[in-house]
Amino acid sequence: MKSNEINQLIPQVSLKNQAAFKQLYEISSPKIYGLLVNIIQDKELAADTLQEVYTKIWLNADKCDISQGNGWPWICQLARNTALDKLRKIDKYPSSIEDTYVNEAYQQSDSQWHSNIDLNSCLAQLASKSRQAIILSYLHGFSHQQLSKKLALPLGTLKSTIRRSMKELALCLNL
Q: What is the C-alpha R_g of the chain?
């Protein structure tokens, strides 16, 4: 799959070109499905969500501004958000947020965290609650309100913790 192809197809899809949409689906759906399975952890639910993602692409392709960059991240973000919305709707979140669970979440070989050793070491430098908040928010899609309850932190404190932790990660990763 080439990002140039996607960048050429998205404007055509925004004009409701069915052939372009079919081609976009054929070249991108296997990777999007893999992303959805990784997030949702259920192949059937991921397949249903895949259809929702491509419906959203069809309906919202005109909102993807190719001049601002590559269309592939837009599709991936749309897929991620759709998957997290699906998990919220069915209330399917990890039941435990113990530190051991969180550590396992970013050390598993199939996890997106594992592919970046620098990120693992930077996450390890964060305080336990900060690390939990970052991982459960960004990897598992917990909302701030859900995290506030689960971590027993006031909402404002949680938001500050996440913001501060993200800055620490950015410094650690030299971003």
A: 18
Alpha helix segments (H runs only) across the chain? 3-14, 18-40, 43-60, 71-89, 99-107, 117-125, 128-138, 144-151, 155-172
**Residues 29-44 pLDDT 10s:** 999 998 888 888 889 9
For residues 15 and 85, membership in a common domain is answered with: yes
Same domain, 9 and 48: yes
Question: Residue 175's pLDDT band (boundaries 50, 70, 90)?
Answer: low
Same domain, 110 and 148: yes
> Are the beta carbons of 7 and 61 closer than 8 angstroms?
no
Average pLDDT, the chain: 80
Q: Which two tokens stand for residue 63?
A: 């909102």
| 138: Cα separation from own chain's centroid | 7
Are the CB atoms for 3 and 50 separated by under 8 Å? no
Q: Give the CATH number of the domain where residue 59 resides.
A: 1.10.1740.10
Residues 85 and 112 in one domain: no
Note the Cα 119 to chain centre separation in Å: 16
Are 68 and 130 found together in one domain? Answer: no
